[in-house]
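We now fix the convention by which a protein and its fold are recorded. The integers have meaning only within a learned vocabulary of local backbone shapes. A record is reproduced here so that you can trace the correspondence yourselves:
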Amino acid sequence: MSRWNHKKTKSSRDCHLEKKEMRVRDLGLGYDSDEIVLFKYCVGTCHSSRKNYDLVLKVLMDNGGISSKKVSSHPCCRPTRYETVSFMNTQTTWQTIKWLSAANCSCVG
């Protein structure tokens, strides 16, 4: 196989989904449960997804043309779909949390 015909592989820095097992009470949402859930979240950069808008905005921020206090000059890695998670609390009642865990990640912005 020629080096010019290889498939482009994603760098570990590119936007992607990662997973972490967590106790429900450690999620910080006020639920009393020791059950373990799989929390999925988005990590990585989106430099390859930058558009001309992002490039010009960065130049304007760098040269002082606009204030960069609340402006983002690059897309960010965010969930584009979410999963619902269900678990049993300490009172043996089923609880459901919508939009808790990322189901898919993409560069947004």
In short: The chain has one helix and four strands. The two ends are 37 Å apart (CA to CA). The longest helix spans residues 52-62.
